[in-house]
Please model this.
Amino acid sequence: MALVNTKEMFKKAYAGGYAIGAFNINNMEIIQAIAEAAGELNSPVILQVSAGARKYAKSEYLKALARAAELDSKIEFALHLDHGADFEICKACIDDGFTSVMIDGSRFSFEDNIAVTKKVCEYAHERGITVEGELGKLAGVEDDVKVSAEDALYTDPNEVEEFVTRTGVDSLAIAIGTSHGAYKFKSEPKLRFDILEEVGRRLPEFPIVLHGASSVSKEYVDIINANGGALGGAMGVPEDMLRKAATMAVCKINIDSDIRLAFTAGVRKVLTDDPSVFDPRTYLAEARNNVRDLVKHKITTVLGSENKA
Ligand code: G3H
Ligand code: 13P
Ligand code: ZN
Model:
């Protein structure tokens, strides 16, 4: 229904102590599942597209599918570029009708990160598009970029005010111990809430973003493993930690791996239960149902965004 930027969404989320779910989209079933869940629960959502998704599905298809979601359902959503690597990809997405972009300059020096983020903000803001920046590196895999746990750098709260002031970003992704993928912790999960608190103190009412925020639900991992999968040792961020973050300065919680797990659990189960199935609609429908249920669970239990559209 309404394609919007993230400005008002985050303002309301900050004031209301909840967060907006940013769900990665890669195909039609995933988009439909998110739209259905958000529509049923009257929740705002962010549909986000990575460079990998653009490569896999082609940006024209994803754009058209997002447009279909806009026409088909009554959700209020932002179409967001996830981990934009440079100015060019951000510009391409803005020119393509995205309402929000992330410029991820976290691999650069502080000054170079500021320079590229500022350039994207200038281009975006002239067109009413909001921009997410990143300070601090997350461990894990993002497209072709791998950051090992040893390289992962927590965000330094001393840098956030200068970064936000000099770039003009609308939201900021910070590193407090989360990581991308399904293997986030080797032992007890820990997040640096002290860093989040200090960032929140230094940037009053400013929306903070949490990447690598999947919870890696045991339910789906177990279904996958019971049906021929091999996901030993998978572990995510406990839901109560995300809930706590959402009541603090975190206004956007990124979820991709949980969608992959729910989707794969559906496909594997259907094909194992009935090896004679070969109609993709049969197993993709189950995958889509799983993703819809997952998104509904996130909205009601983790994000707190039900009825906030
Ligand atoms: O940040 C990483 C997201 O999960 C996107 O993953 O680059 O494999 O599409 P992808
Ligand atoms: P997860 O791998 O935890 O789902 O994180 C996704 C993400 O941060 C996308 O930018
Ligand atoms: Zn991310």
Observations:
- The pocket of zinc ion (ligand 3) is lined by residues 83, 142, 180, 211-212, 254 (CB under 6 Å).
- The first strand starts at residue 2 and ends at 3.
